[in-house]
Amino acid sequence: MSQRKTQTPAYWQEQFSVSDQDIEFIYNKILEENRLFSLDDIATLLVKRRCDAEEIESRSELQQGRIYQPDESYTVDEQIIFPLFDFALGRVQYTREARHPDYGAFTALGVAFEKGGPTREFVASFSHPHPLNAGMQSLANLQGMLSPEELYQKHRDFIRPEVKTVLENNDDFVEFHEQYFLNDLLTSFHEGLFNIADAAIDITGGPLSVDALIEQMGLSNSEAPPDLVRFSVNYRLDNDERFDDVGPAGQVLWYLERLEPPEVHHPPRRLQMVEQSYNASSFDNDLRGLLAQIDDEVTNPAQIPVVGPEIDRVTVVLNYPHWRVGTLPLTPKTQSFFPLSHYNPVLFEFVDGRTGNTFPGWGVLSGKYVFGLDQWYRKNKLPVGAYIDIKRTHDPMRVIVDYQATRTQRDWIRMAAVANHRLTFQMNTTPIACKYDDLMIIGDTNQAEIDRLWLNAEEKELRVFDVLCNIFPELSKLNPQSTVHAKTLYSAVNVIRRVSPGLVFQTLTEHDCFIPINHGYWTYDPELRDK
């Protein structure tokens, strides 16, 4: 008996597909039980359906003989199946009486296998405990196979998308947050009820739970099961362009899309970038360490230490793109501090760590940013490079945002400007009242001119190499040693081109004109630019 195909990775990764019979099976299952099924529930059922079919097929093969168990007796010429030898079929050639000093008398069987080889002996009529005396168990257990649940978890990344795609393309099924039901069984509603829901949210001035809306819509006394009423309302609201779910994972909260900022659904252009892969294996220890230090959402998550819920506070350094659009990055370092959802943007409250005042924030997990800090940055006159503290509260829907205040003083900082259509830098004094990363800090003198330069660089798809070659002399002239730190280069490049730190570092390592010194500092030789 050969290995079952359902136990092989190749079957689930290359051959598995959802058939019309599978769809009919799932349809009847939901109809029969009249309840919601999660995507994982449905996928696991289909895996079990495949395994059960193979179990039945395998049992038909067992009609050739009995499964070997040491406590049973066998006769000459009887055929026996041995699960431990891949269900090999053998025939009893002889029997003889035998004795063991500890276990007493038993029968020895001489068995010749169908596939050839020497005759082997096995015990029979053995009354003492033995692991092969399995009783009535499934063939899968006899072979040490994975259960349907274990198979699904092992091959989930291949099975789940296949099942989801088929369900999404079948009008018989309706879905909300990967919970499925039958279209024909949805609770029907009068259209006017959703006008009531619109008005209720508008009057409240904030999001409402589905239960609150059901109460407002007069559906709380429905004869249908409460879970199905909730699902039906959620499904209808989700397919009505006026409404938007803004709740965190595990909680549905309905809001009005017309009241939301556009950045909730459309990532700010300053944060957008084309795919920028990099290979960190060419980085030295200094550059690898900087990847973890720079708070950029496009850095490979594996290169950023995860901060879990047991940590109450983290500090991030504000970069130019996030400073311009009023956002913070979502990385393994910051993500656990914010209420988020894989299905939708989440509305929460920022708490000003200086004043205690609250203002709305938005977590956009798909874009890896939180939005809503623009006015707070400007009110507190925070520069690029400022240290921003993120702190937890007892309410997961409230997140404290703070900066490390100092007495206001005039500091010399790098100031970005545009001259002859090029980005330039000079050292100017400016009043600052917070702690900041001296390697990342940048001010600007004319945002309109810098925006025009940024748009031009974006439209021309200016290479990172060319940007670095242009700005390196500008930055090196600010240092008596003519060296520039890799973090400074990353911060400066992002003034006119949204670039990941990994790609900046890779560009430095790939070209001879950029020369490493030590501790993350580099020099530039323009004569080697084209070599």
What would your notes on this structure say?
This protein has about 525 residues and is an alpha+beta fold. The protein is about 30% helix and about 25% strand. The protein folds into five domains: about 90 residues; about 60 residues; about 60 residues; about 140 residues, Beta Barrel (At1g16640 B3 domain); about 120 residues, no CATH class. It contains 16 helices and 24 strands. The strands form six sheets. A seven-stranded mixed β-sheet has the order 12-17-18-14-15-16-13. Helix 3 crosses helix 6.
Which key phrases capture this entry?
extended; 5-stranded mixed beta sheet; 24 strands; 7-stranded mixed beta sheet; 531 residues; alpha+beta
**Per DSSP, what share of the residues sits in E-state strands of 2 or more residues?**
15-25%
Assigned CATH superfamily of the largest domain: DNA-binding pseudobarrel domain
Q: Please estimate the helix content.
A: 25-40%
Instruction: Report the uncertain regions.
Output: none
Instruction: Please state the CA-atom Rg, rounded to the nearest Å.
Output: 33 Å
Number of helices: 16
Number of strands: 24
Count of spatially separate domains: 5
Q: Kindly, what is the distance between the CA atoms of the first and last residues, rounded to a whole number of angstroms?
A: 64 Å
- Any idea what the shape is? extended
Instruction: Provide the structure class.
Output: alpha+beta
Oligomer: single chain
Q: For the largest beta sheet, what order do the strands appear in spatially? A: 12-17-18-14-15-16-13
CATH topology-level name of the largest domain: At1g16640 B3 domain
At the first level of CATH, what is the class of the largest domain? Mainly Beta
Describe the largest sheet. 7 strands, mixed
Assigned CATH architecture of the largest domain: Beta Barrel
**pLDDT averaged over residues:** 92
